[in-house]
Amino acid sequence: MNALIPDFTFWQWILFTIELVVKILALGVVPDGRKPSAANGWLLLIFFLPLAGVPLYLLMSSSFVSARRHRIQQEANVMISDRQADLPNYPGSVEFSAEVESILSLNRKLTGFPAVTGHNKGFWADYDMAIRRMAEVVDSAEKYVYVEIYIQAWDETTEVFYRSLERAVQRGVQVRLLYDQIGSLKYPGFLKLGKRFTEIGVDWHTMLPLAPWRFRFRRPDLRNHRKILVVDGRVGFIGSLNMIDRGYLVRNHVRASRQWIDLMVELTGPIVTSLEAVFAVDWYTESGEALDISAPADHEPEVTDDVNVVQMLPSGPGYTTEPNLRVFNSIIHHAKERLTICSPYFIPDEAMMEAVTTACYRGVRVDLLVSEQADQFMVHHAQSSYYQQLLEAGVNIWQFPAPYVLHTKFVVADPGESGNDAMGAFGSSNLDMRSFGLNYESTLVVAKGNLLDQLYELGEIYKSVSCRITLMQWNQRGFWRRYIDNIMRLTSALQ
């Protein structure tokens, strides 16, 4: 019996030494190229739960995609810049303040896309009407249709859209479609979805597929979160809507009677070429087929009420500079009078938190629109962990009533008040760390036009049915609510 004791003690020492070495290595390895909040989150997990923390770190700590995907994105950035090199940063006939010019120049530098004109042909804030309108435009297609939408499910609501794709194919139109494999996986009909697309003649691929048996592997929580539709290169849609019933079909959502609130915007003009270019890069990445995308023509805006100066803002792991975070922060810092932020998941990094609170201290009225009850437990509590600091700075927090999920995402600064100084952005990107570093997102920056006022007015409509949180009310929440919020806040930093 005593002979076993030295062996037991020996193995204890071995395990202790391994754990100590791992922790010492983590101190020097984990912070490399990572924000302090993210590094601290991973170090806490590794130090307190090494058996779980180390495998999770090795599996999920890197936002770097495969070498092939990274190479394609870098080559695409060069191609986009070269094909649009002769275009100025924005139409020469439009005047902007120096601040707006600098933000447009920033995005051009980070993504290669200039600001061009786009005509607002429809501001679709009704969920079912948006899907029906997209189907109507597909029914007008003569040459091709490009669909890139994160979540897709063939159900009673989306039937009208997929049947329009079927009719397009029957007319000889080429239909290409992308959807995220993991994003769509849990929804009814997923296993038969690809087969149904094939049956109606749609050329389709999943985005960011996990297929280790084909040596296709990557960080499993990376997502292509984009929502884009392009028809014949003349009409485009961009926004936050997934192609699925607004109740999202799965048991917990149905039980809670959740209904999603979203926005899609219909555009024509040169901006459609920018949407098409984003699709073309993702299509080539997944299929290997190169699509011919030309430089946008007709750069100068027409003198009409619905003309907008807009700029494509793609982002994701292929962009190492987090362009959406930088542009969002620039717009927030740019606000002088009013700032409206609408996001289902508002989990800012340090820079954005400082930008928002600083705006309040400068005297800007800041309205933050969020859901009363988010559709994800961890996100709901991580988001609410920031409310104390926001309320103390003077942010007006508005909760859209449950069971609705406010899924629209936009930022708008100084609409209708500052002439050439108003700016905004909308699309698929949330204002959270996942959207800044892990998700492929599609966002449109708006520097001029009626979209700015429409975004602001939509925020006012949302506010009219929402409940505002006061600091006094928030201070009355219990200990366990604070405790859970703060734990979930830590998990949001694990990027």
From TrEMBL:
Signal peptide bounds: none
Protein name in UniProt: Cardiolipin synthase
GO molecular function term, any single one: transferase activity
UniProt lineage: Bacteria, Bacillati, Actinomycetota, Actinomycetes, Mycobacteriales
Pfam short name (any one): PLDc_2
Entry EC number(s): 2.7.8.-
PROSITE patterns for the chain: PLD (PS50035)
Keyword terms: Membrane, Transferase, Transmembrane, Transmembrane helix
Source species: Corynebacterium guangdongense
Coiled coil: none
PLD phosphodiesterase domain span: 220-247, 402-435
Transmembrane segments: 12-30, 42-60
Source domain of life: Bacteria
InterPro entries, A to Z: PLD-like_dom, PLipase_D/transphosphatidylase
Enzyme class: transferase
